[in-house]
Amino acid sequence: MIAVGLTGGIGSGKSTVADLFAARGVPLVDTDVIAHRITAPHGIAMAEIAAQFGPEFVAADGSMDRARMRTLVFGDESARKRLEAITHPLIRAETERETREANGPYVIVVVPLLVESGSWKMRVDRVLAVDCSVETQIARVMRRNGFTREQVLSIIARQATREARLAAADDVIVNDGATPESLAQDVQTLHERYLVLSRA
């Protein structure tokens, strides 16, 4: 079974594309979902997060206080690296387990920071990038998350450039002014290609 790494910048529409593959019966392994699970109440990362960062970073329900942690790691590079040293190995192990256990013709592994991490490219058979302009990213994230333009630009600045993602990609879906119908058709075309590749 082949593994396709699905990536794209914030606001590019990765989740929408992933859902379209799932609607075609393709199993999804989503690293963001795994990241939320390991930092949920009683998640496997929580004991180490509490030990490293202190109880003030644990919410009343036992999950990670995301707002507090986001504020800290945005302004403190060493704190970000400490958090990633806890979460990344756990996310990687869970992703590999779910990918092994996936049941389908091929599996889509959703990795927002696939290009940034460097090593993910070696763990998937193909890379699919969802691409759109930076202005489209900004507009979508401001509308969806209520962030300011400056906050969105700060997130984009920490991600791989659009050019780097496109250079790493085997396949690209352009999601700038795409209609739901045209996006679904693009996914269908790739789905058929991946079915052929998975049988090869």
TrEMBL record:
Kinase in keyword set: yes
GO BP term, example: coenzyme A biosynthetic process
Claim: Cell wall biogenesis/degradation is one of the keywords in the record: no
Similarity comment: family membership: Belongs to the CoaE family.
Principal location listed in the UniProt entry: cytoplasm
Organism, scientific name: Paraburkholderia tagetis
PANTHER family assigned: BIFUNCTIONAL COENZYME A SYNTHASE-RELATED (PTHR10695:SF46), DEPHOSPHO-COA KINASE-RELATED (PTHR10695)
Name of the protein described by the UniProt record: Dephospho-CoA kinase
UniProt GO MF annotations: ATP binding; dephospho-CoA kinase activity
Gene3D superfamilies: P-loop containing nucleotide triphosphate hydrolases
E.C. numbers: 2.7.1.24
Encoding gene, per UniProt annotation: coaE
Subcellular compartments: Cytoplasm
PROSITE patterns listed in its UniProt record: DPCK
EC main group: transferase
Keywords, in A-Z order: ATP-binding, Coenzyme A biosynthesis, Cytoplasm, Kinase, Nucleotide-binding, Transferase
